[in-house]
Amino acid sequence: MDLDVAVVGIGRVGLPLALAFADRGLRTLGIDKKIDTLAALADGRMPFYEPGADEILTRVQDAGMLELSGDVALAARARHIVLTLGTPSFTHIEIDVSQIRSVLDDLLPHLREGHCIVLRSTIAPGTTEFVAGYLEMHRGFTVGEDLFVAHVPERIAASRFFEEISTLPCIVGGIGERSGDVAAELFTGLGAPIVPTSPIEAELAKIWTNILRYTMFALPNRLMMECEQYGANVFEVIDLINRDYPRGGMKMPGMTAGTCLRKDFTFSEERSPAPGMLLAVSRVNESVPLFLVDGLKRRLAGGTLRAKKIAVLGLAFKSDTDDERDSLSFKLMRLLERELALVAAHDPMSPSSTLTLEEAVGGADAVVLATNHTSWQDPLMLERIASLAAPGAVLADPWDCFDQRAVFGELRALADGAGPDAGDSAPPATAPTIV
Ligand SMILES: NC(=O)c1ccc[n+]([C@@H]2O[C@H](COP(=O)([O-])OP(=O)(O)OC[C@H]3O[C@@H](n4cnc5c(N)ncnc54)[C@H](O)[C@@H]3O)[C@@H](O)[C@H]2O)c1
Predict the structure, then answer these.
(1) Into how many domains does the chain fold?
(2) 208 falls within a domain
């Protein structure tokens, strides 16, 4: 084995990880089947935005520490084989392990004693045992003795990889006596404290890390809908809940989604002993776009969005990233289009081409702040939007990106500092619709 580590699936998680290993002097091989990814990297370019990654890519390529390939079988050149493959969820509420199985099948004939397979992807409880059993059944290894399998979940947030990789506790759940130790040998070099545990506890810890966040964000989103129902201001209520209260902690509302939060709960829900609770959490977060559409309808002239120009600012699923996967902005735009609105989108970080701010907001009847990019959190941006939009235009800002403490408000009045209830004369809603 002439390499230290192979990372299979060099996407948003795998590529920064491969760079981190290579930058710490490990002979690293990055493997992916995406031609575009391999071509960009061969060209010395990152295929997506991750702060700090460009410099590290240049450094490790100059030092010859990072090889690239499209051939999964070559992963067997490394002692540690880290799988950072996609693990989507079927609409049946069930993990889709097909990417992992396909790579295991490609690897099977090449695996030798001493190899360590690390599952870095987010997986449903029991998947590490499944992988170990699959390798034992098809190749006769005794996992934990002659071949090693461990789950070492990725808990780093996109855009914070190089900040967090050497500090976030690294959970290692190994199969049998020795898998955990062998996997830990690889990750120790990254500098974060290693926390050994069982595979099932590692799997549960990862998915419940995300379930916790998804649920915590569903509560203010649900509260935002209830406040609309009663004509109350959600930001006032959140302030009343949290202010000087030692047991508070209500989060802020927003367009809660993204490729992890939107599917990781299904890995618990698929075999839930109390089915439905996490589905309800998902339904609340998934209802935010419809809540915004209905709110705009109630506030725009004639109670209709037909032929009204609606600017959607932000396509990324969260602030300061170019990751649009599983962003609710697209659901919002589809719902607006089904109301016959004229949708105009702008996102300066978007990899897809969007309109300029002037084109998107110019003459708009309403503006929806769909992503809370940091650069937008500025009174000058609010003034800019107000001066571009049509007179009487409505702003929907569920994140409170502009610090106006109003989910909906009349844009010009808000920019002029008229306060949270500026121009918000919508009648109380009926019960919020859950899609
Ligand atoms: N994106 C995040 O912020 C994040 C955070 C924590 C955990 N995770 C988890 O990490 C895993 C990976 O997520 P991601 O966002 O990096 O996904 P991704 O889609 O960006 O990356 C997966 C990569 O695997 C490659 N791939 C798929 N099948 C392959 C095959 N047969 N051979 C070679 N390459 C193959 C794909 O081409 C892709 O580039 C998922 O389980 C995800 O839930 C993601």
Answers:
(1) 2
(2) no
